[in-house]
Write a structure and sequence with these properties.
By secondary structure, the protein is an alpha+beta fold. It has a single domain, classed as 3-Layer(aba) Sandwich (Trna Endonuclease, Chain: A, domain 1), CATH 3.40.1350.10. Helices cover about 20% and strands about 40% of the residues. A hairpin with a 2-residue loop joins β1 and β2. It is elongated, with a radius of gyration of 14 Å. About 5% of the residues are buried.
Length: about 80
């Protein structure tokens, strides 16, 4: 988690060494989004932060076969949380 100008930011980081199974962003399925949302609600509620604005960002990291970083991309507001 991070904070950006008063907004709590939940980050999902995905790494890929090949594009055989799609881009790192494509790996954030609807199921994964729903899971992240449940975890965020738990985090916010246990810390009494439910009144704070928050968002979900995603980071894509592409590496070569030796593990060297080739590209990093940030997607702000990668997906919206479903209403509670």
């Amino acid at each position: 988690m991070a904070e950006d100008r008063g907004t709590l930011v939940f980050l999902e980081v995905k790494t890929r060494s090949t594009s055989d199974y799609g881009s790192p962003f494509e790996a954030i399925s609807l199921f994964k989004q729903q899971r992240l949302q449940r975890l965020a609600v738990y985090y916010l509620s246990t810390r009494r932060l439910m009144d704070r604005p928050c968002r979900f960002d995603a980071v894509s990291v592409c590496v070569d076969s030796a593990g060297r970083i080739q590209a990093v991309e940030l997607l702000v507001d990668a997906f919206e949380a479903e209403p509670r």
